[in-house]
Write the structure tokens for this entry.
Amino acid sequence: MTRRPVFLLSVLAFGFAFFYVPILSMIIYSFNASRLVTVWGGFSTKWYRALLSNTQVVEALILSLKIALVSASIATILGTMAGIALVRFTKFRGRTLFSGLVTAPLIMPEVITGVSSLIFFLLLAQWIGWPAQRGFVTITLAHITFSMVFVTTIVQARLLQSDRAIEEAAMDLGSRPWQVLFDITLPVISPAILSGWLLAFTISLDDVVITSFTTGPGSTTLPLLIWSKVKLGVTPDINALATLMVLFVGVGVLGAGIVMNRTEARRIADAQLAYRSGQ
Amino acid sequence: MAEPAPDSAFLRIEGVSKTFGTFQAVRDVTLSVQRGEIFSLLGGSGCGKTTLLRMLAGFETPSAGRIFLDGRDMAGVPPWSRPVHMMFQSYALFPHMSVEQNIGYGLKHETMTKAERAGRVRDMLDLVQLSPLALRKPHQISGGQRQRVALARALARQPKLLLLDEPLAALDKKLREQTQFELMSIQQRTGVTFIVVTHDQEEAMTLSDRIAVMDRGEVRQVGSPTEIYEYPASRFVASFIGSITSMEATINGRSAEGRMDLNVPALGGVVQVRDMPSFADGQGVTLALRPEKLQISKDRPPGPNAIAGLVKDLAYFGKDSLYRIALPSGALVQVHAVNLRRGDEASRVADWDDQVWLSFDPTSAIVLGD
């Protein structure tokens, strides 16, 4: 009676295979004892050991994390300010221009952003002698410019949803606008600010295009390192590195999921509590 | 600089208008409110009542006119410096603060010790009977409790004037009635002047000492609930408050002492009402009759104003019934009759398609010039 939807199931299987077989094969081959990526030579964890003793990889990872941390934090501060300005101050001169300028990096091809950043830094070096060398600072600045817009967008969306009346209520109760900002607005939108920071952090961490334009000698981030290594042929230690990253991301997503489930369960419990106490 | 008010009114609104672009939200409103009063601004949506309230709170600046509170001109005084607090329609509780922190928020701007502040919060919690829930967050309490937190928060700094924007609109009917009386008792205990914005005429009638009926940005009438209901100044007010049957009429003359004769085609003849010297003979007016001011009977009643009709419709509500009587002229008149006797359908005053008589006292008819 119940006909198995064979077609649907096979489409589903194919779709999942398309997504996950490459990642899975990468994970499996990271435990390959053979030097050749495509030939299975028995189980081994030697590439993981090789990875940890490879100072180049460790240095690249630390640089990437440093850039991501600094650029995400500054982008979050600037992006939040822009988001608040766009939502709360509906009438100021050049608002349309400002909103266009803020969101332009979202649709600008990365290559363009990268090239223009490079030219800008070169010109700047000519005019004022800074930056003499490209590296950590120039990469961080470029990352701030293009990850800020993501924070702005998230903060803007959250602010548009929030009830303007709570800010008016705080003002009505005696708080000046800047007090309202710190007492009410920022705490209320803090989850959006946090997710904006996380997004900016991730984007910075895995960026290749803009980084390769704004980097200089001796400043190799992890994605740049992987990219340059792969150009010389895929080695199993890259597989090991990628597997570690998948593990890291997987644990992160799982953790976030558990926290969200807990929050939802607590919200339901709270609602029931409210209902009972309302009787 | 702050000249004292020439009259003793606590709040004076003088010729206040507000224009948004080309839209005039409030037109030349002049009102005075006494200290300790519950004053309602009543009107449909878009009548300007909320804009007027927001101008009192300082969120909007009047395009014209002045507002005096306790003799002080409020022009240029920002919301955070006004001794006026507002209870928002959405309650606008701070979601990241507990009930206690919400109520105490405004107090951080007062010069008082920690102990005094805690004491004030405790008093407020007692006032709205929420002490057991002091540590809950707004999403952990019910709608009625949120409303009380909003009230306590607005009262905590002991404002001179409390503005309430649709205070009961978000509550269900049963809770609304209970809360209405709570609001009134809290107002009496605190002595704070309340200004209530509402679209609900019943709410305005029960809560208020006085009501201003607003329409399209203008105040149409100001008076006590009784005045507004029994002596409406215009057809708009008459039909906005309660239900009413209005009919075209002309003044036919004065045949008896203190009486005025009205020719009402819809009623099929001449009726007598109380004389109002402001109307001239021959003038066209409107006769308005409230459903409960009409009597219904099977036999012709004595007296001048008796009209025959047919029961067209009947709605039984238990304690009373609403009849719709068709007159020979084709007009429909609504009559409210209290069901005094207990019994089945047979004991009712009238039934569908019964021939009945309507009558009303000359003093209970409303005659309107516009």
In short: Chain A has two domains: 54-238, 249-279. Chain A has eleven helices and no strands. Chain A has a mean pLDDT of 88.
